[in-house]
Amino acid sequence: MTGFDTVLTVDWSAAKRKPRRQSKDAIWLGVARGGTAQQQIYCRSRQEAEAWISKFLEEEQAAGRRVLAAFDFPFGYPRGFARRVTGSDDPLALWQWLEERIEDAEDGSNNRFDVASAMNRLFAGAGPFWGKPDQKNWPDIPYRKAGISYEEVAERRSADLAAKASSSCFQLFFNPTVGSQTLMGVPVLQRLRLRHKAAVWPFEKVETAQAVLAEIWPGLIEPAVKAAMAVAGPEEIRDRVQMRLLSQALGRLPAEELAAMLAAAPEAAQEEAWILGTGYEDRLNALAADEPGRLAPPPLSNDCFALPAGVDWTPVDDALQLLKDRLGPVTGGETVPLADALGRVLAEDAVAERANPPLPNTAVDGYGFAGGRAEGPHVLPLVQGRAAAGVPFDGAVPGGSAIRVLTGAALPDGVDTVILEEDVSTDGARIAFNGPLKRGANTRKAGEDVSADEVILPAGRVVSPADLALAAATGLAELTVRLPLRAGVLSTGDELVEAGEPAGKGQIFDANRPMLLALMRQLGFVPVDLGKAADDRESLRAHLDGAAARTDVILTSGGASAGDEDHMSALLREAGAMQEWRIALKPGRPLALGMWQGTPVFGLPGNPVAALVCTLIFARPAMGLMAGAGWQAPQGFEVPAAFEKRKKPGRREYLRARVRDGRAEVFKSEGSGRISGLSWAEGLVELGDGPGHIKPGDPVRFIPYGSFAM
Ligand code: AMP
Ligand code: MG
């Protein structure tokens, strides 16, 4: 048997239409080719998913590729169910029966409870379908399961028992709504099957079919999903991870092993269907797992930079929101000693091993004893010995006696209160002091700072020197951090020569690359120098081809608009993954955002001023998300302007600026070729999208370079 070229996995949903923003419990698809999870696709509705899958099957078949399309809901019902409904044991006759009856609108409203009611009426007694949104409607569907006998048909299929799935295809409401997913999914399967001549496993012969539909269940690879979620952090969408790993596992299976799994369906599966991979869970989990070291990142989808159609100039905030919604962490994790953790991004929450302080101790040098003391003079005998930090007193201090204690010392048994040495007189055998003194005075309680098992640093945090103190104090010697984001920088343009090289007439020195490479380092990324490419498509292609494997993200400058020499955008367009972002921003030109062999590319304008502003405003927060550090908006503050300026509405402007004597000065020229102004400035003044006439003394927003971590 030949293997499959492509694996598609489908995480189905019975829910209503979902928001534009990627969310959980929606329909998610996973695509793997050659054992690599290539993309995960988010679908807002079942119609959208059906159209996508249909087009995909068509294209794969046209290209001569063999496809396994695996769906996560039951393909069949327990034995005897089909006959009661259609008069036949053939599960595909039941598919047709459901396809003819189920109606599903684009907004997600549908008639599944009516169809289930009709089926319930065919059975004696209550059920088998149960669960609904309210007690009143659909009298033929019990609200709860109690009282349904499951004598004529079983509650679960052999497949569910074998896979240890606790769900039932008869449960329509309350999680898990497998029953509803099946009712809303089977009609889609039936249409796909007929439209694309796909063979349905295990009901039909699949050996020679070019497209095969099979049932899977992500629960089989739960251990691998759990591990990947721990690395990805809480912001990652679980469904996306499931589809990535499941497509990866099935895609990596050698043909013979997959053939064995397909052959493993027992007799009962001819009517009830079977979950592919049941009995092979360990193998699937091993194949699903990301490689250690650099864990395979969840690749971004090719259309992740798509902008809403029909918008001419996109406001800055909308463009930022889009990036925020679409991008996520792409780097794996590793565990490093504290000494190597500075500046790295935490991949998981750091949890205190031990309380701080670990034991109750004294906050001052003085004398310790039990209990507080009332107002008035007190004299206490001293016990022999003392307690110091790291040198505890081993023995108990009898009630009414005191002991010498030094700052940081664990409180000896029998001591809960300390008096400052400055407040005491002593003859070596006794101490005398005046009350009052509260019980517990001058001591620190165990765990008063941090208790054991407390989260001390959240996933996504960039580790600071102070964080290292906290981690060390609470018993951590290592932290699990993300692999640093590898950021490639490429300059494009025939006119560019390297600083230090002889420059001919009409040539200029490449200023962007040293700037952007240095900036990448300052932002905590690994700068990858991709050199410079001439203004021709082949040269550019050669540079990018080599780069995609060595980088997690690529910044290019120059050639990003739609002009004749703008090969960057032409090349990305040719790859089918280029979006021209026309952002209402000055300084700036259209950005070319795209994917090159799975690596996101930010095509920046060539002008150094525009290149830096676009990097700081757009690329930096986007890269922060990819690096796992979350979205970091720069912090600005208002200062009075030291300048006058009239501004047109309809775009946001960033001026090179610095603060002197508490007022924001701007550079003498707004010319975007003026590199000296970038260097003169210590930050940017941000002017809002609306019109404006700024006069000296008016408040303006100043964002220091430091707020961009620059
Ligand atoms: P482009 O976006 O390619 O049309 O370039 C716009 C302007 O920026 C042109 O004047 C280019 O010469 C200049 N430019 C492009 N790349 C660089 C670079 N790496 N360093 C300095 N100037 C550049
Ligand atoms: Mg150019």
Automatic annotation (TrEMBL):
Residues 488-625 form the MoaB/Mog domain. Pfam families: MoCF_biosynth, MoeA_C, MoeA_N. Pathway: Cofactor biosynthesis; molybdopterin biosynthesis. Its cofactor is Mg(2+). The keyword Nucleus does not apply. Keywords: Magnesium, Metal-binding, Molybdenum, Molybdenum cofactor biosynthesis, Transferase. GO terms for cellular component: cytosol. Its EC number is 2.10.1.1. It catalyses: adenylyl-molybdopterin + molybdate = Mo-molybdopterin + AMP + H(+). The keyword Metal-binding applies. Gene3D superfamilies: MoaB/Mog-like domain, MoeA, C-terminal, domain IV, Molybdopterin biosynthesis moea protein, domain 2, Molybdopterin biosynthesis moea protein, domain 3. It comes from the Bacteria. InterPro entries: MoaB/Mog-like_dom_sf, MoaB/Mog_dom, MoCF_biosynth_CS, MoeA-like, MoeA_C_domain_IV, MoeA_C_domain_IV_sf, MoeA_linker/N, MoeA_linker/N_sf. Belongs to the MoeA family. Catalyzes the insertion of molybdate into adenylated molybdopterin with the concomitant release of AMP. This is Molybdopterin molybdenumtransferase. It comes from Leisingera methylohalidivorans DSM 14336.
